[in-house]
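Human
Can I borrow your eye for a moment on a structure tokenisation matter? Give me a protein, with the fold worked out from its sequence. Write it directly below this note and I will take it from there.

Assistant
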Amino acid sequence: MSTDIIHKIQQIKETLPASVSLIAVTKTVSVDGMRVAYGCGIRDFAENKLQEALKKQEELKDLADICWHFIGHLQTNKAKKAVESFAWIHSVDSLKLAQKLDFFAQQALENNIITVSPQVCLQVKILPDDNKYGWSVKELYQDLVTLQQLRFLHLRGLMAILPFGLSDDDILSGFQKVRDLQVCLSDNNYFGENFNQLSMGMSGDYLLGIKAGATMIRLGTIIFGSRNR
């Protein structure tokens, strides 16, 4: 198991441009497996479930330089704990959630629970998909003015998960549309000059994500194997 993880991480790293960050998705992965990945130089770890993540954070608190990312659907009643526990939240998928996170980030900063505002990506549905959360392009533009009023989050870019079952050409086209949207928002300075991140690409499509301009890829199965559910 350890040898497999080491070998897979080495192989993946050889394919990555310097501009792309590898985020290891560790849903259901043991802390022992995570320590192996850490030993290979991985410092960015992502979780989908808050309770599982908090338990792992406690067990890995000796590894103080881990950067924790939250990538799953986040209910608003868990926004406070998410702000306090994650440096990055990729899956901000609604205005209501963004406003809750901003409110709790202000509280956490003022009470010295955190020292840096959370880094946030806005999750978009660039293609219609009833199984995914996030803004459509039209909805995002409708909410831009209100999103610009948030003061305690660092809005850094876009996150996308495409519908299942697409061809490679359609995947690449979808990712390119996400990139084009991010470029448009950045060029018009809606969220400042640091709105330059694209979190897109998972184990089955990360090379296409990179080709389209991803700056962060979220890899789980290709590193750790199939999930134990």
About this structure: The radius of gyration is 17 Å. The mean pLDDT is 96.
